[in-house]
Predict the 3D structure of the following.
Amino acid sequence: MRTMDSRQSANPALGAADGGPIGPSGPLRYVRVMAVFARNSLVRDMTFRVNFLINVASSISWVLMNLGFYLLIFRFAPSIGASTGWEQWPFFAFLATGLLINSTVHALFMVNADELSELIRTGNLDFVLLRPIDTQFMVSLSRIDWSALGNFCVGLILLATALVRMNYLPSFLECALYVFFLVCGVAIYYSLMIALAASSVWLGRNLSLLDFWFYITTFARYPMEIYQGRFGAPLRAAFTWVIPVLVVVNVPARLLVQSVRPSSASDWFLAAFAVAAAIASLAASRIIFQIALRAYRSSGS
């Protein structure tokens, strides 16, 4: 029988899950570790197949009920907001974009962010700090919720259906920019999530993370054009320029919707701002996480 050391030598990435060696330094090491996390998470989910299937079915059912609700709305209204350009199928492309971003964030980060507060409260973060890999990477991606990707598949189907019904075939450049801005949206959401989770160092136990996340991201579920008037305009400004959640879905969705596609200088400025917001959000969340680690008191302190 081979020893643990021999197994780690044969598979350098294996140590990522148990604190041992993790192979060569550099980006390749993190790719190998991520592959181990993905495999282990899939094995864990497949161990409880019934629970996995129930989670997939329930999340997809919720999405389908929401689609039914919007179909009911479009029976009585031609668009979401007067003269906004978001008719039925363009709006469904918008919804599909939100599904792609949210399902990715939930699959990769939500469970880990929720568990970070428990690691801090119990002192088990000590064991993560001892591992020879970046702590933020470890706590952010150690577990993948594969069941959340069911909504990702629904988003792809809905997006394809919406584009067909709009009789529109995006160019290669538009598809590339769309994917790029999807990544920017995921980065903004992740940054907000990990910053909220890291606040558990000071709060002790951040049980309101999921609730606050739901409240904040609710504003990003609708086109920014509907935020008008006395109360809507301040909300649009706050959630575009201060907490930039409105650009997360709006910017990539607008690239694929002909009637509201970026055409003016201000539209392209918003797209550039989305890139800057993603970079700034990642940098700010990194700083907050590092400050939280310095403030953390281990169970042995």
